[in-house]
Inverse folding.
């Protein structure tokens, strides 16, 4: 499909096709074990696995009689949350629509690119070479994903499951609109960030705790939108942010539950010493729900009490809810034909 080495890495190595939602859901535990085996192999070699070490793959639910237009999930950043998003979508929509997950693991590390951008100092308004490559590959991932959608109804709803990628998404969209308008006009974007802002406004939250990667934090992906709506964020200190990054990269992304829980416990013990009680937790990185789930039952004392009582806002779940709300009239229209 593509000619340069970077784009070739976005061509799926494997495709997993399912005819029913139950078929897909039943197959996911084995797929998760496969991801864990890949991570374990790197660990045995003394390496910490990165998203880019996992293969680019496609998982597709193709029911025999879809009633609604397809849903495209751009995952792989990292692959574990990609599977979680696909499973949530299958549970929600069952056999009513085609659901495509592209595990676009080859998309460059968002935090590395943002670090380089910050180091450029006063030149941050100009794109770095790494940023240009990331934007180009994100746009390409969307095209590869669209090509996997066989259902000919439009629009195709698209959710990019990585929060940090939303910083670069407007640039990727502009590339798509300029170079491939025939694809761009088919797409309906569902934003993780807008879904969260809408939810917080509806419940009048004023002090949510944002847990995210440094890339999302530096890019103010949530801060800009929330502050514009009068919502003040609580964010970890720089030292705690470093611990959180270790939780995400060395823990969840590496399928290392023990290390995730150890670092996660340390993170929340220190956080609760300094931060006031937040309204809720925004899981502003797609690995954070995994972190919180793995911690459940592993913590005691104040950390256990805090996590048991806190509302966790999952942007992916909210985006899927929004997709369901906006797709229902289209499904009804198809049924009436």
């Amino acid at each position: 499909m593509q000619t340069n080495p970077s784009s070739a890495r976005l061509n799926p190595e494997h495709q997993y096709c399912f005819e029913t939602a139950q078929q897909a859901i039943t197959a996911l535990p084995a797929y998760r074990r496969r991801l864990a085996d890949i991570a374990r192999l790197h660990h045995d070699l003394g390496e910490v696995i990165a998203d880019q070490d996992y293969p680019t793959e496609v998982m597709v639910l193709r029911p025999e009689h879809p009633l609604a237009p397809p849903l495209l999930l751009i995952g792989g950043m990292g692959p574990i949350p990609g599977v979680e998003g696909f499973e949530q979508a299958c549970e929600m929509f069952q056999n009513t629509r085609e659901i495509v997950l592209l595990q676009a693991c080859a998309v460059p590390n968002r935090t590395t690119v943002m670090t380089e951008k910050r180091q450029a100092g006063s030149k941050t308004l100009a794109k770095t070479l790494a940023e240009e490559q990331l934007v180009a590959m994100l746009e390409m991932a969307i095209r590869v994903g669209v090509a996997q959608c066989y259902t000919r109804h439009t629009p195709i709803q698209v959710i990019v499951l990585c929060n940090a990628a939303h910083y670069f998404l407007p640039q990727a969209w502009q590339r798509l609109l300029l170079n491939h308008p025939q694809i761009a006009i088919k797409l309906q974007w569902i934003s993780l960030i807008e879904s969260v802002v809408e939810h917080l406004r509806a419940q009048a939250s004023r002090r949510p705790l944002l847990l995210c990667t440094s890339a999302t934090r530096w890019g103010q992906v949530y801060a800009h939108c929330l502050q514009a709506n009068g919502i003040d964020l609580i964010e970890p200190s720089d030292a705690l942010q470093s611990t959180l990054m270790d939780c995400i990269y060395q823990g969840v992304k590496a399928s290392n539950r023990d290390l995730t829980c150890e670092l996660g416990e340390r993170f929340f013990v220190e956080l609760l010493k300094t931060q006031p009680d937040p309204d809720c937790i925004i899981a502003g990185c797609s690995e954070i729900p995994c972190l919180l789930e793995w911690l459940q039952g592993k913590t005691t004392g104040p950390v256990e009490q805090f996590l048991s009582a806190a509302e966790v806002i999952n942007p992916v779940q909210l985006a899927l809810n929004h997709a369901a709300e906006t797709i229902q009239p289209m499904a009804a229209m198809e049924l009436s034909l």
The chain has a mean pLDDT of 90. Residues 234 and 276 are 9 Å apart (CA to CA). The longest strand covers residues 68-75.
